[in-house]
Design a protein that fits this description.
Strand content: over 45%
Order of helices and strands: HEEEEEEHEEEEE
CATH topology: Lipocalin
Oligomer: single chain
CATH class: Mainly Beta
Radius of gyration: 18 Å
Shape: elongated
CATH superfamily: Lipid/polyisoprenoid-binding, YceI-like
Number of helices: 2
Largest sheet: 8 strands, antiparallel, barrel
Number of strands: 11
CATH architecture: Beta Barrel
Helix content: under 10%
Length: about 180
């Protein structure tokens, strides 16, 4: 079976919209090189068009970030990090989709760079209310400096407070349009 035929089975033709109540984007970053800070963006939107040449585009509202620490979240929204007032959204536009990976352009804080994400598709299946759904899990990493997210503080023993590499995870439930 060709890659195109496999893609058509994984993402059947039609337009699929993300279910924002059952989708989120998470990130992790090392703090002081000893612990991992986890954060979630809960306000996500995305559209997946299926068929022989699937497309994917989406965005997150950066003000929806939560790390379970209000002070840290406020700092993340400031110009040192996301600069949410000037750049309220981060976005992604796929340039290549296969059963195992999604490649595209990720934009954060006004800077756009290519990113490759490991992909896992599940479904399609029908939910109890008759809606056709499919799932997509994405995983990858970025260097935050590429996006102008460069704030840091030196540690007395050497090194820095925040690691440069940020791991990204997306979990999406898509519903097929009627």
């Amino acid at each position: 079976m060709s890659t195109t035929q496999v893609l058509e089975q994984i993402v059947p033709a039609g337009t699929w919209s993300v279910d924002p109540k059952h989708s989120q984007v998470d990130f992790t970053v090392k703090h002081m090189g000893i612990s991992t800070i986890r954060g979630t963006f809960s306000d996500v939107s995305a559209t997946l068009a299926g068929g022989d040449s699937p497309t994917l585009s989406g965005s997150i509202r950066v003000a929806s970030v939560s790390t379970e620490d209000e002070t840290r979240d406020a700092h993340l929204l400031a110009p040192d990090f996301f600069d949410a007032e000037r750049h309220p959204e981060a976005s992604f536009e796929a340039t290549f989709i296969s059963p195992e990976k999604v490649v595209g352009d990720f934009t954060l804080k006004g800077a756009t760079h290519p990113i490759e994400l490991k992909a896992t598709f599940t479904g399609p299946s029908t939910d109890p209310w008759g809606n056709e759904r499919l799932g997509l899990e994405l995983e990858g990493a970025i260097n935050r400096h590429d996006y102008g997210v460069s704030w840091n503080a030196p540690l007395p023993g050497g090194g820095f407070l925040v690691d440069d590499v940020v791991k990204l995870y997306g979990s999406f439930s898509f519903v097929k349009a009627a």
